Amino acid sequence: METFHQAETSRLNITEYPEKVSESKSAINPQALFWALIAGVLYAIYYQQHDRGTTLGIIQLTLIIAAAIMAIVKLLGSNRKLTYTPTGSLIAREERYYNLALEHDIRQCLREGNISRLNALKTDDAGGIMIEVLTSKDKLFTAMRMQKYHLEGYLPETEWMTLNKH
């Protein structure tokens, strides 16, 4: 689960691309409804039991509480969606991690807008550099930025850059 700081830094500032990106927020997260339904069904089963003090009853009660907490977390969580305005295509977010030794190459790829060269670089899950990639489902819009790991977590090193080469 993302922390508040990570969620805030991961968002594309739509004021940077007002003619290309719009933001929407749906009223209710479907996952919240799913977890609430699970909690309700488990509670109905638990309520019908005569002996609720058994180990099985305690396990069921624990599962009910966990499902209710998940429903609340999903309900309160951000349900924001970015859309590429010209085509109405949803924008997906991806994170790629690279070794710090590739920092110069990564910066050059971003400066040139060469996404194919960036894709050719070897990723490293324990890397100190994270590239955030936002791509519309129809592949007509791509924005990237580089973040570098510091003691506080990953912090932006570059601004969002739109790329035209896929």
3D structure, described in words:
With 166 residues, the protein is of the alpha+beta class. It has two domains: 47 residues; 77 residues, no CATH class. The chain is 39% helix and 27% strand. The chain has five helices and seven strands. Strands 1, 2, 3, 4, 5, 6 and 7 form a seven-stranded antiparallel beta sheet that branches.
Rounded radius of gyration (Å): 21 Å
- For the residues shown, what is the average pLDDT? 79
Number of helices: 5
Distance between the termini: 30 Å
Q: What level of helicity do the residues show? A: 25-40%
The number of distinct β-strands equals: 7
- Whole-number tally of structural domains: 2
* Helix/sheet category: alpha+beta
The profile of the biggest β sheet is: 7 strands, antiparallel
Q: Beta-strand level of the residues, as a percent range?
A: 25-35%
Based on Cα principal axes, name the global outline. elongated
Unreliable stretches:
1-12
H/E topology pattern: HEHHEEHHEEEE
How would you summarize what this structure contains?
The protein has 166 residues and is of the alpha+beta class. The protein is 39% helix and 27% strand.
Topology overview:
Layout: H1 4-10, E1 21-25, H2 30-48, H3 55-76, E2 80-84, E3 89-98, H4 103-112, H5 115-120, E4 129-136, E5 142-150, E6 153-156, E7 161-163
Antiparallel strand pairs: 1-2, 2-3, 3-4, 4-5, 5-6, 5-7
